[in-house]
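Worked Example 4.2. Consider the chain below.
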Amino acid sequence: MVGGETEDQIKHYNFDKLFLGASGVSVDFGITSTSREEAQIKRRMIDSAKEVILLVDHSKFDRRGLVTYATINEIDTVVTDWGVDAKTVSKLDEIGINVIVAPKNYK
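Applying the procedure from the previous section yields the following structure tokens:
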């Protein structure tokens, strides 16, 4: 669901935990989407959430989508797969983001 009506409705919700995906994740450019409409909804959801959990595979790191909808500091936890670069995990850890890496044999 996207659009103004959806944005207006989300203002009335309070999320304890918000799970989001992204087109790209960059320490410098933030969390991005390829869709302006989707980015607006995700932005509104972040504003209504106590905790933001980003679910992305390793291929999303150091990539940028068209629209930034959050800074990296607005993310509490990143859940990713075993292919993530150790330097990326270190950067996120330094910022204070909890990183959960699924093991290679995870199914």
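The radius of gyration is 14 Å. The mean pLDDT is 91. Compare this with Example 4.1 before moving on.
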